[in-house]
């Protein structure tokens, strides 16, 4: 009887392993030949993310998918993750954080820990995507003035806008701005009109400094005016925006320091100043 039980258990384990292997083989892989490397967190759990994406990605509506794709474009992740894969990553994160919440919670609060962990895990990829987009936009804002200076000098030296963009790409340090401009140049070489390629970049980034620059360039292209003064004005404006942003952050610093100052520094100061006074009162019998 015991041998029969062992054989049945071994058969069940074998069937489970085979089922997991078939699930991994059919749903756990994704086409990565023409795609960029996924973010580190997604890459660590890539097969599980793809299983979730292929299993539950079809339940995502067209409107939700389009909105998520726009967010991935703004973050520069549209060639790393599909909307279905990003949603699969959210589900995997929810399961992982939910399990951690159950482990950390006491016996009476395991359900609460599960719910709170699952909610935090489901929201964490959105928080990461938002922070990554803000960081990328900041890098673009910092790189724009020098990039526009190179483009302006190239245009004033006699190059057309496409040649000036290529010259600026060759001279500027790598960054997200150069990735987007390189994509514009590839679109132009592929036959897309220059105005449409620039507008596509503005739509992808959905960032006001880039949208303002593209609007000025498109208007100059369509009107046939000289692009040198337009580019120089845009460069000065982007540099002014950088200084204004730095001044704004400097003015916000005292307000941000007020909370830690009241919560941590003031109590320690009062303890240091008040301790000798209290000790003297206690020594005098008061």
Would you write up a description of this structure?
The protein is mainly α and 286 residues long. The longest helix has 57 residues, at 227-283. The chain has helices at residues 2-27, 40-44, 46-56, 62-74, 83-104, 110-156, 161-171, 176-189, 194-205, 208-223, 227-283. α9 (194-205) runs antiparallel to α10.
Termini separation: 84 Å
Name the beta content range: under 5%
User: Which geometry do the CA atoms define?
Assistant: flat
Structural class: mainly alpha
Number of E-type strands:
0
Average predicted confidence as pLDDT: 83
Are there runs of 5+ residues with pLDDT below 50, and where? none
Largest sheet: none
What percentage of residues falls in helices of 4 or more residues? over 70%
> Which value, in Å, is the CA radius of gyration?
28 Å
- Oligomeric organization of the protein chains: single chain
SSE arrangement, N to C: HHHHHHHHHHH
Number of H- or I-type helical stretches: 11
Organism: Pelomonas caseinilytica
Pfam family, one: T2SSF
Protein name: Type II secretion system F family protein
Transmembrane segments: 43-63, 258-279
């Amino acid at each position: 009887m015991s041998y029969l039980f062992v054989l049945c258990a071994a058969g069940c384990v074998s069937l489970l392993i085979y089922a997991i292997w078939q699930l991994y083989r059919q749903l756990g892989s994704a086409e990565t030949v023409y795609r960029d490397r996924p973010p580190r967190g997604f890459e660590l759990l890539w097969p599980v993310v793809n299983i979730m994406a292929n299993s539950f990605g079809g339940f995502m509506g067209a409107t939700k998918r389009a909105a998520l794709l726009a967010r991935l474009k703004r973050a520069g992740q549209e060639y790393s993750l599909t909307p279905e894969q990003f949603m699969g990553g959210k589900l995997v994160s929810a399961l992982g954080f939910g399990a951690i919440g159950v482990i950390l919670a006491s016996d009476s609060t395991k359900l609460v820990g599960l719910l709170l962990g699952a909610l935090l895990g489901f929201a964490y990829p959105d928080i990461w995507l938002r922070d990554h987009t803000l960081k990328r936009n900041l890098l673009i804002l910092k790189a724009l003035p020098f990039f526009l200076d190179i483009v302006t000098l190239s245009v004033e030296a006699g190059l057309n806008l496409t040649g000036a963009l290529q010259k600026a790409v060759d001279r500027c340090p790598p960054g997200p701005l150069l990735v987007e401009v390189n994509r514009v140049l590839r679109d132009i070489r592929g036959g897309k009109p220059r105005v449409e390629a620039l507008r596509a970049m503005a739509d992808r980034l959905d960032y006001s400094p880039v949208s303002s620059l593209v609007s000025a360039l498109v208007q100059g292209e369509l009107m046939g005016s000289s692009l040198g003064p337009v580019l120089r004005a845009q460069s000065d404006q982007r540099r002014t925006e950088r200084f204004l942003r730095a001044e704004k952050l400097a003015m916000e610093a005292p307000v941000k320091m007020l909370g830690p100052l009241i919560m941590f520094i003031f109590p320690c100061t009062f303890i240091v100043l008040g301790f000798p006074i209290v000790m003297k009162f206690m020594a005098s019998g008061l």
